[in-house]
Design a protein that fits this description.
Blueprint (H helix, E strand, L loop, with lengths): L6 H13 L3 H4 L5 E6 L14 E4 L5 E8 L18 E6 H7 L3 H19 L4 H6 L4
Parallel strand pairs: 1-4
Antiparallel strand pairs: 2-3, 3-4
Helix pairs in contact: 1-4
């Protein structure tokens, strides 16, 4: 990894961001796998993925994180009956590292991205996440 942060350190920052979530919310998170990936697939935009993005002045976008699953607000009474595939939060190390000025900024960007994707788990849309400063 770049920025002087090892993969293990990066994953620890992701874990620390999860630990910063208030306990009453953290206790409601169930059946979610949080994974760190180096890069999103090159065709993420063509796939129609809508995740936490950073758009550069030149119009180029980087996908920083992605929540895939059924938000808590959309789960019916029978969700999980018979076993449900875990929801997934993917955090993409390469793009986060590229947009960060230094290690402190990288930690901030990781934290914001984790909170952003957890917000999607709770059914919060991008507009509201931006209002809350998690966009």
């Amino acid at each position: 990894m770049h920025s002087g942060m090892s993969r293990q350190q990066f994953e620890q920052v992701v874990s620390d961001a999860m630990d910063d979530i208030p306990k009453d919310l953290l206790d409601r998170i169930d059946n979610v796998a949080i994974v760190v990936e180096d890069e999103p697939p090159a065709d993420w935009q063509a796939r129609g993925w809508d995740g936490h993005e950073h758009s550069a002045a030149d119009g180029h976008s980087e996908l920083l994180g992605l929540y895939t699953g059924i938000p808590l607000t959309q789960r019916g009474d029978f969700y999980g009956f018979g076993g449900a595939t875990p929801d997934t939060i993917q955090i993409f190390a390469g793009p986060l590292t590229r947009i960060s000025r230094d290690q402190a900024d990288l930690k901030h960007q990781i934290h914001t991205t984790v909170i952003h994707e957890v917000g999607h788990y709770f059914g919060i849309d991008d507009a509201r996440l931006h209002e809350l400063g998690w966009g």
